[in-house]
Amino acid sequence: MKIPQQPGRLFLWRGAALVISPGIDSSLHTHFALQLSYGLERPFRARLNTEHDWTASRSASFAPHDAHQIDSDGGMLAHLFLEMPEAVKLNGTDLQAEFGTQPEFQALVTSLLDNRHQSLDMAGALRIRQTWQACALPQSLSSNSLDSRILCALDAIAASHGADCSGQSLARRVHLSESRFTHLFRLQTGMSLSRYLLWSRMVEAVAAVAQGNNMTAAAHASGFADLAHMSRTFRSMMGVAPSELHRMAIAFKQDVI
Questions:
Q1: Within 10 Å of residue 163's Cβ, how many Cβ atoms?
Q2: 37 CB-near residues (< 8 Å, 6+ apart)
Q3: Which has more confidence, 4 or 194?
Q4: Residue 106 has what DSSP assignment?
Q5: Residue 171 and residue 117: Cα distance in Å, rounded?
Q6: How confident is residue 182, by pLDDT bands cut at 50, 70 and 90?
Q7: CA of 213: how far to CAs of 16, 208, 221, 225, 253, in Å?
Q8: How is residue 54 annotated by DSSP?
Q9: Of 161, 153, 236, 246, whose CA–CA distance to 205 is shortest?
Q10: CA 205 to CA 209: how far, in whole Å?
């Protein structure tokens, strides 16, 4: 089913993002979030690094930290990004993910293809996100499996809105030494605190753009040293330049987890 080309759309929540857009061929990149991708019009190609062959796929799941690249040939794609560190330990990258064949997910495909998403209705986007997540991830996965001290730190980082969160201040908050806290953070999330903070700042920068800030203001508001720093981070984590945000309609809601 062919759909007309249209501007990309981004729905952003704390801890998740839904992107519906004509495919933008990415460079090799890696990021913290679990990425679920689906070719709305036709299959796309993906590979994990330059030493691997391209794999044609209609639905794929990319685990955090796994470098990957997508070639869509301009086809319409949908991506769901989820900050779920506990899920990473149980769900590796799968270039032929089975969620795309499930009846519940196919109902989502219909809703995306018939352009119901054009109104940027956050409630509808949230339903899509929740159903897609349920199709792709085991029901047993829950953030409650994380250590309560790490959950507290993640909440503090989210509440900081891009402001600097040092390992020392977060460790003090959860009554641990800094070395013990940073070790536990890596053990629980699978990544360093500094890497997670970069991802969080990038999400805050996107939110700032959604609220009408230009790129420079968004960089400063989200805690980056300057626009160049934000641009490098965005490109390394998303595989495209942050200028692509200007081609998207963005809806943002921070208080929905």
A1: 12
A2: 44, 46, 59, 60, 61, 62, 70, 77, 78, 79, 80
A3: 194
A4: H
A5: 42
A6: very high
A7: 21, 6, 9, 16, 16
A8: P
A9: 161
A10: 6
